[in-house]
Write a structure and sequence with these properties.
Layout (H helix, E strand, L loop, with lengths): L16 E6 L11 E6 L4 E6 L7 H12 L4 E8 L5 H19 L6 E8 L6 H13 L6 H7 L8 E9 L2 E11 L10 E7 L5 H13 L5 E2 L9 E6 L14 H23 L7 E9 L2 H12 L2 H8 L5 H10 L11 E4 L2 E5 L2 E2 L5 H8 L3 E7 L5 E8 L3 H8 L4
Parallel strand pairs: 4-5, 8-10, 9-16, 11-15
Antiparallel strand pairs: 1-2, 2-4, 3-10, 6-7, 7-8, 11-16, 12-13, 12-15, 13-14
Length: 406
Amino acid sequence: MAVGHYPFPQMVAVPGVQWGTASAGIKTPGRIDLVVMGLAEGSRVAGVFTKNAFCAAPVTVSKEHLAAGNIRYLITNSGNANACTGAEGMSDARLTCNKLAEAAGVKGQQVLPFSTGVIGERLPMARLLAALPQALNNLADDGWAEAAKGIMTTDTRPKGATVQFEFEGETIIVSGIAKGSGMIKPNMATMLAYVATNAKVSQPLLDQLAKKASDQSFNRITVDGDTSTNDSCMLIATGQTSLPEVDNTQGELFAKLYNAVVSVHIQLAQSIISDGEGATKFVTVQVEGATTKPEALQVAYAVAQSPLVKTALFASDPNWGRIVAAIGYAGVEDLKAEAVKVWLGDVLIVENGGRAITYTEEQGQVVMDREEIMIRIDLGRGSSKERVWTTDLSNDYIKINAEYRS
């Protein structure tokens, strides 16, 4: 089940990026589950990774290789996370890189590995390595849609976004694909994302841009409050343009590039939430009037991750008491209940420490019956605000995760 109409877009190819896919039968025979991304010489790559202490072997290897620079290939398998697999898992991740590098004529350190799927099982290396040549031979500029399908696990639909703009007679393109549906929470989530641009960007600025864009997108979503072991978001600048290198945050070119990169990240993050496991609602929780942004996020996540709020959303039940309870236990020091206001959509439901005089159950029901819902909270204690995106918690979420390994 998924929320809304999110057709896979007509992707604009990024000069310097190619995609190739193959079926290795890692979990399901015949399914595309191996994806190779080829980058032009001189491309720069930045990454943001999970903070889970049990981070998967490919995350560790990717961090090591990324530090060495000059990345030429990324390889992703779905169906198996290669996480919590000990020394053998590390060996499998390194072997995958080395075999791809050998076939492509580059060094093993120039390959970044990624995996997604079941935790705690070793990769079927014989099948994976046997499929590598096919994925490498299939590299093409227009392989974005097949690649988006190949990285899916419990996703019900592929996810992509593309933005382009003109600057001094040249076209700058930002395109990206992502996967994610469950085990979604910041730092980051069970998600993979690959965003690329043909702009020239210095490595320090690319690192900064990757973090800022992720913080405004993939670190603002939650389905179930679980942070996974494999989360990775990669930002790539191929430099395939005659425009000068962007190496600082000043000027019109950076401003346009920044807006395009953030837009693609947010579109991908929202498409993950709209495809949350079992989701029937797309929910924005916006908190304003906080003393600091972290305080606003603290409250937003308390509401967005409350099982009682999420099950009420699934039932389309305007049980606003669950929202105020979550606000109250969020841990905000010296929060004055009488200063807090809460809206469902544009309907004021709470003020002056209780139910708003103008509120009726019928008004709340109209909002809760919608597929897309805004919960807006004003803490009445400052000028900072933040927002996160979440889903409801349905019967199907339980079914999907109960049957995940079957």
